[in-house]
Specification:
Radius of gyration: 26 Å
Number of helices: 12
Number of strands: 6
Strand content: 15-25%
Shape: elongated
Order of helices and strands: HHHHHHEEEEEEHHHHHH
Structural class: alpha+beta
Helix content: 55-70%
Largest sheet: 6 strands, antiparallel
Length: about 375
Amino acid sequence: MIKTIDRYIFKELLEPFFFGLGAFTAILSSSMGLLELARAVVLKGMPVLTAFQIFLYRLPGIVVYIFPMATLLAALLAFSRLSHDSEVVAFKAHGISLYRLIIPVLVLGFLVSVVNLTFSEIVVPASNTAAKNLLIATATTRQPKLQKNVFLPELAQGRLKRIFYAESMQGETMSGVIVQEFDRGRLAQIVNAASAAWQKDKNQWLFRDGTIYLLAESGEYKHTIRFKEQYVTIKYTPADFYVGDRESSEMNIAQLKEFIALKQKMGSDITDLNIQLNMKMAIPFASLVFALLGAPLGLSPRRTSGSVGLGISILVIFFYYLLTSVSIAIGELKYIAPGGAAWLPNIATGGIGWYILSRAADQ
């Protein structure tokens, strides 16, 4: 049962939380993409409608970082108001400790973390992929570029299903195409084709002048089939081939784990990918540690205005992401484990918040 004190503090938190969402969205969206797209419209002739679509697609990826910021601002401003109006003193006089007062803040931080994690798992990968595809489609429509030695693997349920290779690709046409099909880890079929063209209406690739080699379990050729034209269903579109490896921001946790497993089988260094995998959990749960830090930061005899609170929040966030950058760099150098590199900023921030809270509670 939610007690009166919890409802009261929740009410104090909600208004600055939504204020923070709006303020930080306006700041970050302009600095992390809007100016770049405006330059693309002016200097490269990108259609305004396309630029606006790309901006909307990129916005969810920015919001993931805004949730922790808004939680920090909410905790800071709410406890600043309670402290300035001597309500914290009144609570203490009635035997209610700071540790008890901060519970609603931590609950809010946890709830925001869960919402943020769900949002980053479901919405963000799809929106980032859509933004990338639209950006590449616009670029290739204006001026198809030539790409050499195109290579992409395809996974199914954690296993290697297909390896796609082309000597070159320009626009939506590839030449010198080789496709290796796998069945339960065994090479079962090889398709060679002189060219392959993307058929947008059918959402398939049309292979031309090729040969299909069917392999027995022993690895020997079992059958050979020649063809003039053959439709092949592959989950990748031309935009995917131009980009090459998928970025971690375009995958959820399960997909990224599969991708890491494939890269490991291929002998690639997966340190950075493992760090990004852990970051997918660490960033959403920054809301919880920011809640723990923001509340004691707001305990001051002087009331903090919205603008001052916003400024303090920006400083804290700056140092948090500076620490994150340093921690990731150390992790990439393999001085600490990928999990440690991703979670170290949260652990340090939470530790600082708990120290400040302990000092304030003892006064």
